Amino acid sequence: MVLQNNGTIALEINHLKKIYPDGNVHAVEDISFSVKEGEIFSFLGPNGAGKSTTISIASTTLKPTAGTVKVFGYDVISETNKVRKHIGICPQDLVFYNNLTVYENLIFFGKMYKRPLKELKKYADFLISHVGLDEKRNSLAKKLSGGMKRRLNLLIALVNDPDLIFLDEPTAGLDPQTRRLIWEFLLNLKKKGKTVFLTTHYMDEADYLSDRVAIIDHGKIIALDSPFDLKREYSGGDVIEFKFHEADTTVQKKFQENSQQSHFKNVSYIDEDNLFRIAIHNGLLTIPDLLKDIQEMNLHISDMNVKANSLENVFINLTGRRLRD
Ligand SMILES: Nc1ncnc2c1ncn2[C@@H]1O[C@H](COP(=O)(O)OP(=O)(O)OP(=O)(O)O)[C@@H](O)[C@H]1O
Ligand SMILES: [Mg+2]
């Protein structure tokens, strides 16, 4: 079933909280947001941020400690079966049968949703051909490469033609070309009116695919907006990263002394990498001036890197840390 985008809310999460009793881990702390039908919505955050916990609760496989989650208006706790009819889940850990072929896995999982067999067979082949698995259609799942297994895992989430698709790190470990293929496939699902909720720690993936991104860290949403607006609000433009031959404390002191100069108003120091970041608009145009000023400060550059405005800058500016791939 494909629903039309008429302002319907596909997923609504209110004051969600999850404490794992084992170790008293506060994995999710008071998260609230909603996803509109037809949107691609991403959770971007580092390891342990609470992404999988949230997605598992929203897709009915884990119970929350507090708060509510509704899928197309149905409550995940009291109306679990109704919720399950609307959703597909691609978990972070691979879930399929090793001793069935790619095609047989899809038919097996599709049958659980009671799709008419003729329709299911056609759809299974459609899915296989759209993620580049044609040649492996009749290979046992256990004989697939890691990236191919991940693609099979993804297809299983789609076999019941769900309206809302939960994808937990769908492109982890895929080669760049295959990631692109999956991205185009997901954008096609969106064109058909499907809603996608995905988690990722790839900044470029969140940027390219998402209508909106929630940046999650330590179980909390620290920013939520379209990639464009996140970059506009939190990034401050391009970033030039420097390392210097002089000691970092010497460099810090010099930047402080010159902090009134326009280029040096937004200098930050990333402790974990021992490098200095300078945020500026129009990075490439400003570089000659910037280099001249640095020379006049008697500092000697040992390494330099220009980074275009990206969600990585947003994450660093919000947390003071890098979000590593
Ligand atoms: N079953 C569990 N029991 C106890 N603690 C858990 C359990 N599952 C997850 N956690 C903890 O909850 C926190 C959030 O984990 P979660 O798996 O949701 O993070 P994530 O954002 O998906 O990370 P990753 O990018 O590594 O997949 C972590 O501190 C993790 O160790
Ligand atoms: Mg996870």
Describe the protein:
This protein has 325 residues and is of the alpha/beta class. It folds into two domains: 9-232, Rossmann fold, CATH 3.40.50.300; 236-309, Alpha-Beta Plaits, CATH 3.30.70. The chain is built from eleven helices and 14 strands. It has helices spanning 51-58, 80-86, 102-112, 117-130, 146-158, 176-191, 203-209, 227-234, 248-257, 283-296, 311-319; strands at 9-20, 25-36, 40-44, 66-71, 74-75, 87-90, 164-168, 195-200, 212-217, 220-225, 238-244, 267-270, 275-280, 301-307. Helix 3 packs across helix 4 and helix 8 packs across helix 11. The mean pLDDT is 90. It binds adenosine-5'-triphosphate (ATP) and magnesium ion. Adenosine-5'-triphosphate binds at residues 20, 22-23, 25, 27, 45, 47-53, 92, 201.
Tell how many strands the DSSP assignment holds. 14
Spell out the helices and strands N to C.
EEEHEEHEHHHEHEHEEHEHEEHEH
Order of strands across the biggest sheet? Answer: 6-7-8-3-9-10
Instruction: Give the radius of gyration.
Output: 23 Å
Largest sheet: 6 strands, mixed
Bound molecules: adenosine-5'-triphosphate, magnesium ion
Show unreliable segments.
none
Percent helix: 25-40%
The named CATH superfamily of the largest domain: P-loop containing nucleotide triphosphate hydrolases
Q: How many angstroms separate the termini?
A: 36 Å
Strand content: 25-35%
Q: How many structural domains in the coordinates?
A: 2
Secondary structure class reads alpha/beta
